[in-house]
Each structure stands twice: as structure tokens, then as C-alpha cells.
Amino acid sequence: MAVGLHQFVLLAGGGVVPPWMIGGHAHLGVLSILAIVMGFAVPALGVTGTVRTAVTGLFVAGQWGIPGIVWLGEGFGLTFLMPTGFLWGGALIVSMLIMLYYSATGAGDAAGGGSASFAPGDD
């Protein structure tokens, strides 16, 4: 949100938002929303132990690495860091593939697909 507000200040002051800032902001926004979903999905699917640590670590690295490398590489002129985008993107892909596996092989009621554990009221 802070990046979005900064972009608003630039525009309101008659300036122009650099394209690298727009791309980084978009990635950070979408990946932050996906992080919220992952926060619910990991425990709902019963991902525990080392696998949970791997899923979380890989996702967080990718979530911050993708926009971070855009800002560092393009915004601050550190273009030699740009190839590490493949590392951050790969971390996201591996994290999501692990979650796909748990989704496909988990119990049918793991994500709330089973019957309710309470009796409905007699209204």
C-alpha cells in the first residue's frame, strides 16, 4: 500500500510513475493476496513439519524476491541482479507445486468438503 501511495503522490505532483515501479507494485500486490490464501490453505490441507517450512520459506522468498529484484535491478540500476528473478520465480513455482500435490492427494474433507460437525437447528 505504501508503494501505491507513493505512486499517487508522484502522479498528483505532476510526475510520472516509472514502469519498473508499476511492475513491482503489481507483483507485490497479487503475491500478497496469494500469501493470505496460502495462510489458510497450508493448515487446511494438513501441511506440517519440514514440508510446511519449505512451502512457507519458498513462497516468502519468491513473494518478496520478484518485486524486490525488479526494484533493485531496474529502479536502482543493479541490472546484474536481474537473472536472480528466475530463482525467485522458481521458488514460487516449487511452493505452489507442493501445495498442488497436497491438494490433489489429500483427504476429501481436508479443505472443508466434508459434512458439518454440528446439527442444524430446528427452526
TrEMBL record:
Membrane-spanning intervals of the chain: 20-42, 54-73, 85-102
Domain DUF8059: 1-123
InterPro entries (UniProt xref): DUF8059 (IPR058372)
Keywords associated with the record: Membrane, Transmembrane, Transmembrane helix
Domain of life: Archaea
Pfam families: DUF8059 (PF26248)
Protein name (Swiss-Prot/TrEMBL): DUF8059 domain-containing protein
Organism encoding this protein: Halorubrum cibi
